[in-house]
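Holo prediction. Input below; ligand is zinc ion.
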Amino acid sequence: MLENILDFNGNVLNAKFEIGSDEGKEGLVLHSWSGQKNSAYNSALEIVLKRLQNLNIKAIRIFIVSKDLLKFFNQKDREVLLKGKEIIIANSDINRLRKDIGSEQTKIKINPQSKGGNPTKKILLYSPNVSSELWKDIALNKSKNVTTLKEFNEALEKKITESKLMRGGREERLKKANKRPEEIEVVSKTFKRNADVITAVLDRANGFCEKCESKAPFIRAKDNTPYLEVHHVIQLADGGEDSVENAIAVCPNCHRECHYGI
Ligand SMILES: [Zn+2]
Ligand SMILES: [Zn+2]
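Structure of the complex:
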């Protein structure tokens, strides 16, 4: 039975899947993207890979299972390998990984001379550690601990952008909307920051924002010090150092601008 992948907010994506098997290997079959059909295939594949990563699944195997290739190729010749190996998910940049999978897929074709890429043939994702039930839960956003706060917020940002583009009909949607939002659990990852970096940067700023140079907007009740926030110029998540050189003390306005401004 074909169903749709759900994103981190539980929204239905235009990307069909089913549980299927290929020479005894049962897994998740993602349907290919062509024209209007399964237009969210790429995001769906990334979401599935992220969920696998969050579930600590270290690696999976991917086989192309589109009709034409099934007819002419053995399973081993339809396997998508990266540098000759299975798909390593642990510690991978998921966006990069999805693109690498895509470009490897294009190389598996009946006529190697043909220029046609078919970048998104039907694929089967398989792991001995993932049961059919779990594959289904992963696809439908039901597996435990799959959503991080960051992913959840990114999905919400996308929805806000869509809402801005779909002003018409908003009144109707608001009328029908659930006014008691559903509660969900998210897993969060954070960095153990060095307290000395924070205090050294605050000392250096001496009560003035290091961006706009205004005086700190208020005094902290807790310890009577000027309120400033310590921001990493290159984000820790992007590999930035937790060091005095990579940090600035800024007022709350400037801090928001650092994260959300142009
Ligand atoms: Zn400022
Ligand atoms: Zn910051």
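The pocket of zinc ion (ligand 2) is lined by residues 231, 255, 258-259 (CB under 6 Å). That is the main takeaway for now.
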